[in-house]
Write a structure and sequence with these properties.
globular; mainly beta; 24-stranded parallel β-sheet; 52% strand; 0% helix; 816 residues
Length: 816
């Protein structure tokens, strides 16, 4: 077997691209463009080699790379063989931190010895790869070493990571071993670790079977109208010329064999649409575009390319596209993509100079989900998840609404230049949430920017931007980073961020009517000399001087002007129709639409929080709710109107086991709590002025030390399993109504009295006796206050004897 082996000797400029044979660098090497070491290839760098990396001249990012900066990406093997006396040097030609991307180990292996790396965005960035770093110095970079993913394993031996902005970051569970390593003296943070819940795609894999191949194509053109159905194999580039149409029927499987003539590991077969493509599957019978290889992999084929097709609309609907270099690629075209799945591609969708409508799609587990430039785009109701980079738009006019951008390993959403309008999007669990730069107009309102590992929202060099009514919470370091920005930041909930609600370098505008609550170090940290205007905010009940870092703490900084601070929480309208990720509510939350806590999500309501529901709205909990107030900080669930029973609907718990509710008040609801098939504990709560306080089916439910008063029905049980103990149930029309199957109830040591119709009412379909021994009924003749089999033969009886002679006076204090 013959092996190809190349040596690059001083002086040399490595212009570009993919290294297709085992290669050695030595001497002086100038890297002018991205370099890729593919799987199966080894790049060796000899002692004493100097590598100068040129800053990127454009914003172009090919799908096989992860940064717009110049990078060296390793999917094969990198061996850096420096020594103490003859080290290997990597540096940026501009000698400025962040001028090149760094070395990216993407599922590859790198052994880096005797090395100095400087001026990178991230000196060494490991994605599910393996790194051994020894006898090396990492300095003057933005990030020293970043490892991401449970499959990543890094060892740092006898090395120094210092004088960077950030030192050693471990994200999403990598395995890290450090031996005699020094990680200190980094300007902003030495060591940081964070993880998020793993994203589970909502779209199951399609089992399409293996029908025989009906048609095979090589390099050819399809003229006129062509219809594909069944199973089609493409072994070349199939072109649809101008004036022609390709129509792909539901259930069709289109497979592309792999042809790689230049040895870069990326397939070249695909479709070239210059006419029109109609690929309209159905939910039950999607169209599948995939690799024809037995061992299928990312990049086995090129793309569905739609070029110069703006005259008529191209349609991709209910399709599944996988194993491509670029699943969909548009240029000078009009395209609608909806209800489709794009996964395991280098890039899901790429377009420029086009008019694009992307709606209701799932793009997950790609290197890059979406990248667009110089286009008009409507982007709505998509899920962009578990990609390296979620969505990246440059010089676009974009309207984005209702998207879920979650769990992406770098940016969730990046916008640079152009005009952008974002409403009601969830941007959660990415490394960085929303990054906006060099933009002259933006409207970002009613979004949820939460649980991102580092920063929720970053604004740099933007003008005329409005940030209105967003929840910016529980981000790992900062909620917002602001630099060289003119904006209105108003009416946002900025809470529970790891270090700062806002970190500001330079800002011209106003920060007003926001809630800053429970941010780790500071609500606002001003790290620049110019004053900032922040009037009429609520500072979480803390002394404002303790939660703002500005001139009073460091004379070199500007002043945060915080006059007219609000004395109480400013009501914050919850921006979305769902809670799909772990969320904390604080202050005053208003709910203006029916809201659902989705399975897997936990909604935590902090002590002292008030939740106000608009008429007809309510909360459905299919995940969990933890609403544990305190005696001195009760949680209140109420209505906006506060006029009477049924102002709002109910809190419905379905299969919400693990939920807890304590020290809470429920008022003006149709039902305060409506519980199905949930193991639920309710303690020290107050249900008043509702149609019904609580109703439940199944259980088990425990209701203790609570008050039910001034409702039509206090408690309603249907086929229930519950212990109702030490409660006060009074001044309702009916205290407890048992509709059916009351044999699973234990009602004991309660004060059940002065309910205007009945203390307990047994329903017509309940044929079981009910255990209600040991309660105080407010009368010497309890049967007068009970409707059961004594009143209507055939239904169960309430077993009330022995009855207590004195009230229990449950241990709840007088409630509001």
């Amino acid at each position: 077997m013959m092996l190809a082996f190349f040596i690059v000797v001083s002086p040399c400029g490595v212009r570009a691209g993919v290294i297709t044979a085992d290669t050695v660098w030595q001497g002086e090497v100038r890297v002018a463009e991205d370099v890729l070491v593919p799987e199966g290839i080894t790049l060796t760098i000899r002692p004493g080699t100097t590598i100068k990396v040129v800053a990127a001249e454009s914003t172009k990012t090919d799908p096989e790379y992860v940064s717009p900066l110049t990078e060296i990406t390793v999917r094969g093997t990198l061996r850096v063989e420096g020594t103490a006396t003859s080290p290997v040097d990597f540096s940026g030609e501009e000698k400025k931190a962040g001028s090149w991307a760094g070395i990216v180990v993407d599922h590859g292996t790198a052994t880096v010895a005797g090395c100095r790396i400087a001026h990178a965005e991230t000196a060494l960035h490991v994605f599910d790869g393996t790194l051994r770093l020894l006898d090396s110095t990492i300095r003057e970079n933005r990030y020293g070493v970043v490892a991401q993913g449970e499959k990543s394993g890094i060892t740092v031996e006898n090395s120094r990571i210092a004088d960077n902005d950030y030192g050693l970051f471990t994200l999403q569970g990598p395995h890290v071993v450090t031996t005699t390593a020094v990680v200190k003296g980094n300007r902003k943070k030495d060591v940081y670790s964070a993880s998020v819940k793993e994203y589970r795609p909502e779209v199951p894999p399609v089992s399409a079977g293996e029908p025989p191949v009906d048609r095979r194509y090589k390099d050819e053109a399809l003229r006129g109208d062509t219809v594909w159905q069944g199973r089609v194999e493409v072994g070349g580039i199939v072109r649809v010329p101008e004036g022609s149409r390709l129509i792909v029927m539901p259930g069709t499987i289109v497979e592309f064999s792999k042809k790689d003539t230049n040895g870069d590991g990326i397939g070249e077969n695909g479709l070239l649409i210059q006419g029109r493509l109609i690929a309209k599957g159905t939910r039950e019978h999607p169209i599948i575009f995939r690799s024809a290889e037995k061992e299928k992999g990312m990049g086995d084929w090129d793309a569905i390319n739609i070029m110069n097709s703006a005259g008529a609309q191209n349609l991709i609907e209910y399709c599944r596209i996988e194993h491509a270099y670029r699943g969909l690629h548009f240029h000078f075209s009009t395209v609608v993509v909806q209800n489709s799945v794009l996964t395991n591609n280098y890039r899901g969708v790429q377009f420029q100079e086009s008019s694009v409508d992307i709606k209701g799609n799932h793009l997950y587990a790609n290197k890059s989900g979406v990248q667009g430039r110089d286009s008009d785009i409507t982007f709505s109701d998509n899920v962009i998840a578990d990609n390296y980079v979620g969505a990246n738009f440059f010089r676009t006019n974009i309207t984005a609404r209702g998207n879920r951008i979650v769990g992406n390993w770098k940016e969730g959403l990046r916008i640079r230049e152009g005009v952008s309008s974002l409403q009601e999007n969830l941007i959660d669990g990415n490394r960085y949430g929303l990054m906006v730069a060099d933009t002259y107009y933006g409207d970002y309102s009613r979004n949820s920017i939460t649980n991102n590992l580092e920063t929720g929202l970053s604004l740099k060099n933007v003008d005329n931007v409005e940030i209105l009514g967003n929840i910016v919470a529980a981000n790992g370091i900062n909620g917002l980073n602001v630099q060289d920005t003119r904006a209105v930041i108003k009416g946002n909930q900025i809470s529970d961020n790891g270090e700062r609600g806002m970190g500001i370098i330079s800002f011209d505008g106003v920060i007003t009517e926001n809630n800053f609550i429970a941010n780790g170090q500071y609500a606002i940290d001003l790290d620049g000399p110019k004053d900032v205007s922040a009037p009429s905010n609520w500072w979480g009940g803390a002394d404002v001087n303790t939660v703002i870092f500005d001139r009073k703490d460091d004379a070199s900084r500007g002043r945060v002007a915080h006059e007219k601070a609000s004395a109480s929480p400013i009501p914050f309208a919850w921006p979305l129709r769902f809670v799909s990720t772990d969320t904390i509510w604080r202050g005053v939350i208003t709910v203006n639409t029916a809201l659902t806590v989705l399975p897997g999500a936990v909604l935590t309501v902090a002590p002292g929080t008030k939740v106000a529901f608009s008429q007809g709205t309510g909360l459905a909990v299919k995940g969990r709710i933890i609403a544990k107030g305190r005696d001195d900080g009760k949680i209140i669930f109420t209505s906006v109107q506060r006029t009477g029973a049924s102002d709002w609907d109910e809190i419905l718990l379905e299969y919400a086991t693990g939920s807890e509710i304590a020290h809470a008040v429920f008022e003006y609801a149709t039902w305060g709590i409506h519980c199905h098939f949930t193991n639920l504990s309710i303690t020290d709560c107050h249900f008043k002025k509702n149609y019904g306080g609580m109703r439940f089916r199944s259980g088990p439910v425990q209701v203790t030390r609570s008050v039910f008063e001034d409702n039509v029905i206090g408690i309603r049980a249907y086929i229930g399993n519950a212990v109702i103990r030490e409660n006060r149930i009074t001044r309702n029309e009916t205290g407890i109504f048992v509709r059916e199957k009351g044999g699973g109830l234990t009602i004991t040591r309660n004060d059940i009295f002065d309910n205007s119709n009945y203390n307990i009412r047994v329903g017509d379909f309940n044929n079981e006796d009910i255990d209600a021994k040991g309660n105080w009924w407010g009368t010497d003749n309890p049967p007068q206050t009970i409707f059961d089999g004594r009143n209507e033969p055939g239904i169960g009886n309430v077993l009330f004897e022995p009855a207590l002679k004195e009230p229990v006076k449950p241990g709840v204090k007088e409630l509001p």
